[in-house]
Amino acid sequence: MVSFQRQNQILKILNTQQFARYSDLAKQLFVSPATVRRDTLDMENRGLIRRVLNGVTLSEEPKDVPYDYSVTLNLDAKRVVATRANRLIKSGMSLFIDSSTTSLVLIRELKDIDELYIVTNGILVALEASKRNGWYVSLVGGTVNKMLENISGDKATRDIENYQADLAVFSCRGLIATGATDANDQEANIKRAFAANADQVMLLVDHTKVGKHQLYMSAPMNTLDYIATDKVMPEAIVNAARANHIRIFD
């Protein structure tokens, strides 16, 4: 088992028990305590966990986490968001879809859609969508991010400019009254390009991201047409959405 696989396992363990001792992790991963300490030091430096006395715990605000771990977080909420977003997607539409785990859940939850034209920067989103007969999938070119299972960079944003979609669908790391935000400038650039080249824009956001913000603005409120969420949002965000004529699916 290589380092990124061990780190993924550590995150899964912490998601179930909140705290783990170095000695217990070493036994579960079949490695030495020194190896566990090196892995957890790297994870702490990336903001994924916190090292405490004799062990580790999850960071309160993890940033870039492995994709297959991220997709398991708040899965029920993501399914609710996906179900509410479904009502807007019709057979024959062309879509921009981002690489987020919420978008992956949306693809899996779409039913009775015979034909779609999808452009995405998500590697697993593209693979999942390509399983469906009658769905035509294009993956933008650019730089591969293995941890986030996506493609980004200047080439990716230039590729997006070659398309015009009926609807852009993407998630975010935080939603406040001024708009959707992300922790990664490359992700934010992709979403801005999607929005600029789509007739309409729908944001997917579950309650764990509402009221929080990250460094980069990926979608100012006045660029959105729809927000799909799982719970009623704070009054400030609802008022901002109304002021910008955004329809909320909650």
Count of separate DSSP helical elements:
10
Name the CATH class of the largest domain: Alpha Beta
- Gross morphology is globular
The low-confidence parts are none
Largest sheet: 7 strands, parallel
CATH architecture of the largest domain: 3-Layer(aba) Sandwich
Relative strand content: 25-35%
Strand order of the largest sheet: 6-5-4-9-12-14-15
List the helices and strands and how they pair.
Blueprint: H1 3-17, E1 19-21, H2 22-29, H3 33-45, E2 49-52, E3 55-58, H4 67-70, H5 75-86, E4 94-97, H6 101-109, E5 116-120, H7 123-129, E6 135-139, E7 143-145, E8 150-152, H8 154-160, E9 165-171, E10 174-176, E11 179-182, H9 185-196, E12 198-204, E13 216-220, E14 226-228, H10 235-243, E15 247-249
Parallel strand pairs: 4-5, 4-9, 5-6, 9-12, 12-14, 14-15
Antiparallel strand pairs: 1-3, 2-3, 7-8, 10-11, 11-13
Helix pairs in contact: 1-3, 2-3, 5-6, 6-7, 8-9
Give a description of the structure.
It is a single chain. This protein is α/β, with parallel strands linked by helices. It folds into 2 domains: 1-60, Winged helix-like DNA-binding domain superfamily/Winged helix DNA-binding domain (Arc Repressor Mutant, subunit A, Orthogonal Bundle); 73-246, Rossmann fold (3-Layer(aba) Sandwich), CATH 3.40.50.1360. It is built from 10 helices and 15 strands. The strands form 4 sheets. The chain has a 7-stranded parallel sheet with strand order 6-5-4-9-12-14-15, sandwiched between helices. The protein has a 3-stranded antiparallel sheet with strand order 1-3-2. Helix 7 links the parallel strand 5 and strand 6 (135-139). Helix 1 packs across helix 3 (33-45), helix 2 (22-29) crosses helix 3 and helix 5 crosses helix 6 (101-109). The longest helix has 15 residues, at 3-17. It is globular, with a radius of gyration of 19 Å. It starts with a helix and ends with a strand. The mean pLDDT is 92.
